[in-house]
Amino acid sequence: MSAAATSLMDAMQQEERRRLDVPRGTELLRLEHASKYFGSVVALEDVSIDLKAGEVHALLGDNGAGKSTLIKILSGVHQPDKGRYLVEGQEVHFTSPRDALARGIATVYQDLAMIPLMSISRNFFLGAEPTTGWGPFRRFDVETADRISREELLRMGINVRDTAQAVGTLSGGERQSVAIARAVYFGARVLILDEPTAALGVKEAAVVLRYIAQARARNLGVIFITHNVHHAYPVADRFTILNRGSSYGTFSKQEVTREEVVQMMAGGDDLETLGHELEEFARLDDERVGRMLPSEAGAGAMLQEMGQAFVAEGQEAERETPPPR
Amino acid sequence: MQVTQRAEAEAASRPPTAQKQAAKTGTLRRLLMRPEMGAVAGAVGVWLFFALTAGGRGFLTLRGTANYLEVAAQFGILAIAVALLMIGGEFDLSIGSMIGACGIIFALLSANFGWNVWMAMLASLAFAILLGIFNGALVLTTGLPSFIVTLGTLLMIRGVTVGTTRLVTGRTVVSGLGDLPGYDAIRDVFASKLTIGNAGFSIAILWWLVIAALATWVLLRTPFGNWIYGVGGNPQAARNVGVPINLVKIVLFIGTAVAAWLVAMIQVLGARSADVVRGTGTEFTAIIAAVIGGVLLTGGYGSAVGAVFGALIFGMVRQGIVFLGIDPGWEDAVLGAMLVIAVLVNRYVRHRALGVRE
């Protein structure tokens, strides 16, 4: 069992060495005309995406657009019903996330990445612990684990006071960053980040965006899944936009403005119009307030606020999200 | 490479005093945040209490110490194995009837069927390992809470043990083990006394300490120990990074079963007789000792050292009350109160460990 873990670790570290040899811009993976059906439900229809070394590719789409199905295909959880999946030009048929991991494709999930009560270094090496000693005295090399995790985090620009502190003491953004650093250390050449900024405040999201940019600087390919354009736009080089299981296509940053991306994501509707509509609903509700129960009276005002916030969000996020590095 | 150099330069440019201070507070905080700290403080408090109140009645003598350590040792062996299992996120209530079953199997095979005592001991051990695998497999395949599953096996094992023993012997007690050939040798291993000064210290204390050291080593210094914490803390995350969570849990269930077997051997060889009801109630005392020792009921956090001190508190309270000469009924009241306090302290420690950000 531990032999399996060790051999996986070796394979991953070989990948790390190979990663540095790959010239920037080399194609790492490509999915061609992939479709996925669950019974009669069409989860994905004829979607293509590719990723190059040293690039951040944002995968955008609203809830239910097929983002999770697509990343599950890329990370080996699902197999596409139609279409081809190529890693470095070779067609692959992954049957588990382990297969994808062995080819250097690591997925960092938003919630399932870390164990809060365990220390940073123990989390970092869980499942691939370095050992020292011989025979029955072979033991978990805690010193090496501490040293490497500290070094790797420093390389990501995170300076932890104590690698023995519980991961639960870290902020959400730092936790995501530790998970990213871990994937990078174990030889990931492709990082698939599932909504890494979704549950985070503006400042915390900025921290994670910085680490994404840092991973790109280390010649990794990053697929960044989000439904927040304001997080994706500053850091991404290309965008693939999904809507109801199909792709609107892939665009480079030079081709589209932020507003165009937002429009495509919303399925062609103008968000500002939507915002004004919400305000209109709110006014109509206020007229009915007299007939409402006291507890419902606040709902109209709340809806109106939401409408205004929707319009304001665009400009606000622009100010608070840091520029791409 | 550039990034590394820059990071190193940054680390070097920080003032050394700040670094030293960070390390110092880190060490102190780490010590205070250890899961067993509450139990260590509790053990010191309980010892002081009985030293003051029952000191003149023999609690402080070597003999008194040997007395409560012997009681604590049996609790402790179980509590350590249960603590490891609980850190791994599961419970095992079946140890309560496994002690009786293992003892009876040893006694029946050696006394009624004429087996060599060592062979009977190994057969009893093999039975315990199989029960552990059975418990683990049942929990994993059904996906039910282990609390319920092992409550079921607790009753099943006791029922089968009582039924079978009555069928074979007509009674529920197998006695007269002292006359068996080879009895003295096997008793030396499990139930002898080591004389220090004027007091006989039970060899169970040695077993207890060896198991504590072994469990601590496994938890803190082996990959398997890391897996135990991972499996209990977040099984899904542990599985995602390649930890064989089924294997870890089954090994932990085997651990509690083997601990129950060891306690059975200690009790049966000490008493020269086996009784089907031996071990009744220990399923809860072991959990209580583990929780007093800082193990979280929800898994993923705790230590073997904590379980040692939890059991020590148990032993001191149980025997201390005897030394005090008051009604033994008070024991439960004291232990119940300590359990509630321990859970509150644990919750506080966990919040501190997770919540504080300076």
Give the SSE map:
The complex is a heterodimer of chains A (325) and B (358).
Chain A: H1 2-21, E1 27-38, E2 41-52, E3 55-61, H2 67-74, E4 82-87, E5 90-91, H3 97-102, E6 105-108, H4 120-125, E7 131-132, E8 139-140, H5 142-155, H6 172-185, E9 190-194, H7 202-217, E10 221-226, H8 229-235, E11 238-243, E12 246-252, H9 258-265, H10 271-287, H11 297-320
Parallel strand pairs in A: 3-10, 3-11, 6-9, 9-10
Antiparallel strand pairs in A: 1-2, 1-4, 4-5, 7-8, 11-12
Chain B: H1 2-13, H2 16-32, H3 37-53, H4 62-87, H5 95-112, H6 117-142, H7 146-169, E1 173-174, H8 183-190, E2 193-196, E3 199-202, H9 203-221, H10 223-233, H11 235-240, H12 245-271, E4 274-275, H13 282-292, H14 304-324, H15 330-355
Helix pairs in contact in B: 3-14, 4-9, 4-10, 4-12, 4-13, 4-14, 5-6, 5-7, 5-12, 6-7, 6-12, 8-12, 9-10, 13-14, 13-15, 14-15
Q: How would you describe what is shown here?
A:
The complex is a heterodimer of chains A (325) and B (358). With 325 residues, chain A is α/β, with parallel strands linked by helices. Chain A folds into two domains: 2-265, P-loop containing nucleotide triphosphate hydrolases (Rossmann fold); 271-320, no CATH class. Chain A is built from eleven helices and twelve strands. In chain A, the strands form three sheets. A six-stranded mixed β-sheet of chain A has the order 6-9-10-3-11-12, sandwiched between helices. A four-stranded antiparallel β-sheet of chain A has the order 2-1-4-5, with helices on one face. In chain A, strand 1 and strand 2 form a beta hairpin. In chain A, helix 5 (142-155) crosses helix 6 (172-185) and helix 10 runs antiparallel to helix 11. The longest helix of chain A is centred in the last third of the chain and has 24 residues, at 297-320. Residues 292-297 and 320-325 of chain A have low confidence and may be disordered. With 358 residues, chain B is mainly α. Chain B has a single domain, classed as ABC transporter involved in vitamin B12 uptake, BtuC (Orthogonal Bundle), CATH 1.10.3470. Helix content of chain B is 75%, strand content 3%. Chain B contains 15 helices and four strands. Chain B has a two-stranded antiparallel sheet with strand order 1-4. In chain B, strands 2-3 form a two-stranded antiparallel sheet. Chain B starts with a helix and ends with a helix. Residues 1-24 of chain B have low confidence and may be disordered. The A-B interface holds A 1-2, 4-5, 8, 97-98, 109, 112-118, 122, 125-129, 131, 138-140, 142, 151, 154-155, 157, 159, 161-162, 164-166, 168-169, 171, 214, 217-218 and B 3-4, 7-8, 10-11, 22, 26, 30, 217, 220-227, 229-230, 233-234, 236-238, 240-244, 247, 296, 300-301, 350, 353-357.
